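During data preparation, we tokenized the protein backbone, and the record follows.
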Amino acid sequence: MYTMIPQKLLSYFLYFGAMSFVGWIIEVLYRSSKEKRFVNAGFLSGPFVPIYGFGAVIITAIHVEVQSLPAVTAWVITLLSPTILEYFGGWLMETLFGMKLWDYHERRFNLSGRICLRFSIYWAFFAALLVLFIQPRVFTRIMVLGPYLSHFVAGGLLAYFIVDIDHSVKSIFNFKTFQKDIAALIEKGKEFHSVFGFSGDMDDKKLKLPMEVRRILKPLNAFPSLRRNFKEKLPAFPDWIRKHLEKRFWK
């Protein structure tokens, strides 16, 4: 059974999962400290940020491949690789979803809002830390799992990613559609009314947000860049919904 998947491929997939989880921890700590509340950051609903996993796999693979080059050249390529990944990752997200899921336009020395000097320095430091300290230790622990347990964990992780990615992609497209609908209401001078109605007390503190609004909370929570354009849509909501959103995202 365990010979069905090459060990190297299996190890890299588990490495991807582990580093996606580490990325989630980094993003949660950074975003929660910045917004002064717990923020379940990232594209997925669960505790994983895949771009960190992809980044770790690509950085590690590149570092291995450039070892035959002069040391300075090899390290320059390794340290630049996460910035290149972030740039093309941003381009891909914009192409697939038609939205900027992260935007550095307000930061100095940015390129198309997809990368900026400050975060490129952060990623370079992370790349060095990854290949020198983190990657060897993670792979050592993966090998300790053994072939049977490795296949079991990888299978469960793959099933989870398929379900969560499907749900999260749908939520992004739903957000995009909802935003267009709200823009159309504003153009017609109308106000948002839920087709599902709302539940709770008329006391603002006890009202439960309509389902349509609850569906957009995750994208707004995960990607602060989406809030910039969506803030313009707030006047289309009843006061109690607008106040709730403002308190949550625009304190």
